[in-house]
Structure formats: C-alpha cells, structure tokens
Amino acid sequence: MIIDITVSPHDSRGTAHWTPAATTGLLRALIPSSAMVFVLGTALLVLALTNPTLAFVPIGGGTATHVTITGNALLQKVTEACKAVANAAGHEFEPTGSSPEELVKACLGPTATGEVSGAKFHAALQEIYTQNGLVDRDFVNSAPHHFNSESFLEGRALIIEGLATIKSNIRLENFKAARETLGRILHVLQDFYSHSNWVELGNVEPFSNLLRADLPLENLAEVNTPTCSDCESGTCPNPILYEILQQKKLTSGYMGIFSNAKPKGKCSHGGASDLTSAEIPRGGINKDVPHAHNSGLHRQAVNVATFASLELLEDIRAAAGDKDFLRMMGIARSSVVCFVIDTTGSMWDDIVQAQKLVYEIIDSKKGTQDEPSEYILVPFNDPSFGPMVRTTDPDKMKKEVSSLHPFGGGDDPELCLSGLQLALTGAPASSNIYVFTDATAKDIHLKDTIAALIRSTKSTVTFLLTGAGAGARRRRSLRAGSFQDYKDLALASGGQAIQVTKSQLPQATDVILDTSTSALVTVLQRARSPGNEETFPFVLDESLQNITIYITGAPRATPTFTLTNPSGTELPANQEPGPRSDTFKPLSNLVFPGQKCRPEPL
C-alpha cells in the first residue's frame, strides 16, 4: 500500500501510528513540519522453525541448527508450562495451532478476550537465538565455550554459573538478561554432544552431571592419553581408539585456529578451520555437519543435544515456577503499566484527567488479553519524588491514584526525570510508562542515564505534556528546548511525546487507550524539523492488520496532509478538527491534535 502524508509547515509534531491491515505495500509520508511520525501494527507473527538447517552451526541448510535445537526445546518446554498453568487454573490447554498467537492465547486462558500477539514471544525467542549464535563469534577461540580440547571442567563451570545467573535474573525480573544468558549456555551445552565422544560411547541420554556442580566428572581421558587413530582422508567414520571406547573414556577434539599444536595422540576437532587436524593423528571427531561418513553420529548428537536442552530448561522452570518461566519467554498478560505523575500545584486539572485515564484503562482492559499484569505509580514533585507503589490489584491502584493531590512546586522545572528513573529501575523490562507533567526537567543531567535505561529495559515511555497553551492559570510553561528533551526520550523508547492544551488532554489520553494493546508493534517512527519535506516508505504484509496512523503536533497546529493509495490515486485528507469521523475512508485510524478519524481500512 502506497500512502503519501503531507503535513503543512506549522509548528507541529507529527506522530503516525499504524496498526497495519492485512495488505502488502508501502507507505510514503511527506511531512514539511516539526512532526513526529509513528507507524504501529498489530502483529500476527508466525514462528518459523521449519526449513531445518545445519546442526551445531547458527544458520545454514541441512538437518538442524543451534537455532532449531534450541527452538524445538523451548517450544516443547513452553507448551508444558502453559499446560500446567492452564490445568492449575481449572481449564483445558487447547491451542488451535502452533503459531505464537495460538500458543499464547491458549496459555492465557479461554476466558480472556481481545487481540493476541505472539510478538513478545517471538522477540524473546530471537534474543535467545541471537545470543546462542554470538558464542561462535565472540568466543571462537575459547575451548570451554565449545567443550573443545578436553575442557570439560571449565565448560561445565560456564553452564553452572550461567544457570545461577539466569535464576537470579528471573527472581529480579530481569528477563532480558536471563534470556541472553540462556542463549549462550544452551550453545555451550549443545556443543558438548557434537564435539565430545559422548554419543560414540553409546550414550543416548544427556550427561546430567554437566548441570550439577555436586556431581563428579569421572573417567576423563588424561592429557597424556592418546585418544584417536590417524585418519589421512579426514572422513573416517569413527577414528577414536578402541581402548578409549572400551574403557568409556570421555574426550573431545582439540581445535586450533591460530596454531596446529595439540598433545601427542589426541583427537582433533576437524574441518578446514582447524589447523590441528593436519597433524597426526589427522582428521576430526566433530559432528557439527552431517557427512556421508558421520551422518548417523550427527543425528544421535542432535537428538541428545535436544534432550539436554530440555533438561536444562526444566531445571530453570523448576526453580522459577511456571508463571515466571513463561514471563521470561514473553508469555504473560499485557505488559506492566506504570504512571509517573507530576503532583505540583499547577497540575490539579491534569491529575484529574490522569485519574480518569487510569480508571478507564483498568476497567476497559479487565478480562481481556490486554489486562496489565501489574500496575505501578510514581509521583514526583520538587524537591521529592516517589515512593513507588506496585500492585496487581486494580482496585488498589485506583485508590492510590485517587489519593494524589497537587501541592507546592511554584518554580518552573520539576524532578520529572528522577521520577522516570525510579520507574525504569523499579518496573520490569518492556513496561509501558506514561508521564504526566506540565514542566521542564529540573534534573536534565539524568537524560543520558534515562536513555541508557530505556535501551536496556526496552520499556516504552510516553509523555503527556500540558504547557503554555493550557491557559492563564498555568504558572509554568514548557519551552521548545525542554519539549525536545522529552521528544528525544520518547523516540528512543518507541513512545510518544504529546503536547496538548487542557481541553485536548482527553483526546491525548484516548490515544493511549487505543495503543495500549499487547498486539501492537511499531512499523515506522519519525520526527521532522520545520520546513522539511520528506518521503517515508515502508512495507506492510499480511501478518499485520488494523492499520493506525497518529500524527501529533503542537497544541494549536492544524497539519494538512495528502494520502496516495496503492493505485497511485491521491486521497483528500484535510479535515476540520473535530471528534471521530467515519467520512474519511482511506485509512483505518488517523489522529492529530483536535482531530481523530476512524475510517474503514483499504
């Protein structure tokens, strides 16, 4: 779909949000104003674990990869955890298919209604896959990370240390850090079965001692014990010495990327990148890639590595519990919702509107897939901020918000960023944070810290700002430079910075209600400076539905724009500011200050 948006060069900010429809194409936006453009979409993503590729390599084309071994184990363990949660809640776990959406919807329960997205589940999987693959890049010459060179004790230490780190991070709700460590130690564990002689010894079950520091690693081949026979062709089915197999000695291949040195008589890893494989005994014992001479051992290694991955995941699940295990995997009710509210004297009318918004979010999301899993409130003033209030009880949150009363704060700037910092450090990752203020940031020195926290937590921050246009009663004004600081942080997080007058605040909060769905994804996000005209193309596909565009500008700006459909026809888009309208047909949703259109999708 090709759509041109042209906004007139007023002092305005454009924010285009999309919930893209089931159609493929481009959107082209021409924005000659100080505009912020966000394009969001309700994503119905399908997890692609088909087309299996090479085992024990990140990607490729063969039978299985680290990704597919990891993915298959994760999906099985997530399914088991979902089933246990469903049974405990007294209902059947009956997914209608294997897509993330179907799995997530069945996991959250049959009584919840509304759109469901597997986007966070998919993103969690991708984080794990990425970190798994990065082990080959970041630790290519580290023997313990691949169980090369008979480094069994050191390799096990990495796994056990990683398990402890994962469990600690889950307890602290640092789920992103837990996922990253999980991806890395799964790679280490899986490489044991490809790089050692575990399957050559006839083992068909995982080596559970690798997960237990209290269990010994016994019968390891000594450093001066020969383990392999010479294989000039490099394609011998099993070059491991008969006596090693008979005595059940555990060994692994030596790997040399920069050196061909290895102990006398030891097996090599093998392959073109292994310089030791040209030294007697030549050849290698890795089962990373299936060849004619080792395809059977390759399949066995893949199978046992999968069982071992399941065993490791079950260890984490048992320690964390089903619900927190699923939260780590991005499967839970909608993200935590956090409100950061300025309580200075000039905010009395904004606080009333914030209270109404909190009530409406709680009431409208109750019993749906988007019902927040937790509510957080952080008030701020000057010279104080906090305390942070956390609760899973919606009625308690209503009571806490109702107790807010404006006081003090006669000067202009307030401790907005201190309150936001408290929210970002106290809330779980991927939270939705809404900031209500009419003042500049007194603690602007925290801006870089806030930006770093946004990057690490992946939380979304939206600012609702009421400034100079809010009326004579305001004792403070929000200068353009201050607004830029908020805009920078909003853009960094994928949120919005909406500057409105008091009368427009209900419409701004309406935008929050429209976008507070777990099924929403950002397709495009842009901010423009005054006087510039630019084209913004992007692709929409059949995985997206319910296109939504938001353009938000300065309180008194009325941007104009044009839209072009896929056939090249320009569609009139100028309308007088007003309430919702069904007369404008080309787009699903369009919003800017003073105007909101909800026409039919193309």
Automatic annotation (TrEMBL):
UniProt domain Hemicentin/VWA7 galactose-binding: residue ranges: 521-579
Keyword field: Glycoprotein, Membrane, Secreted, Signal, Transmembrane, Transmembrane helix
GO cellular component terms, A-Z: extracellular region
Domain VWA7 N-terminal: 100-326
TM annotation in the entry: 29-49
Protein location: Secreted
Location of region: Disordered: 564-585
Entry protein name: von Willebrand factor A domain containing 11
Gene of this entry: vwa11
